[in-house]
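Amino Acid Chain and Its Fold in Token Form
===========================================
Scope: a single protein chain, as residues and as a discrete description of its fold.
Amino acid sequence: labelled as such and written in the usual single-letter residue code.
Position: the record begins directly beneath this header, with no further notes in between.
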Amino acid sequence: NDTCVPKESFFLIAVDDGEGIDAEGISKVMDFGAVRTYNELDLGKFGVGMKSSSLSQAKEITLLSKISGGNVQLRRLSSEIVHELDQWVLISELEQHMNTDAIQIARDQLRQLDSGTCLVLEDMHKLDNRIGTDANKADYMNKESVHIRDYLALAFDRYIGGVTLTKNDGTSIERKVNIFLNG
């Protein structure tokens, strides 16, 4: 369903054009502390980082992913559902009011890719608190964009330039990423 519900809140969408995640895998990724096999050079080890860092910033977290030749898979951690049921529940189908502009943008991004993943953070309460009035919004968002750009450039400098990573067995792998901010 492509019908969007207008929603007045800040959101962030991170998109990659990697292999995507299948239906079983996306549930594991969104579960807290799910057991999974990690490759030697994978980031993360305990299955809590993406969820805990995202929940510290946003009330709604949705992961959408598509493998080559597959359909878009979706899983959502929703504070609304937590309050309603008094427990963490991972949902795979959005209620009508959850089909927001941010979700539609993520779906559109995935339609353009053979495979990939979108992480959508909505209801970013910390941004709401920091910005204050509408008069401050543009100035604050410009400063925040510059801060994010500079941080990404610093944190991922070696990967942006290209880096050779050596495994324990002596073999190596090349890693290079391109990062785009706001297009």
Remarks:
- The chain has a mean pLDDT of 82.
- The helical segments are 23-30, 49-55, 79-85, 101-111, 125-131, 134-155, 157-161.
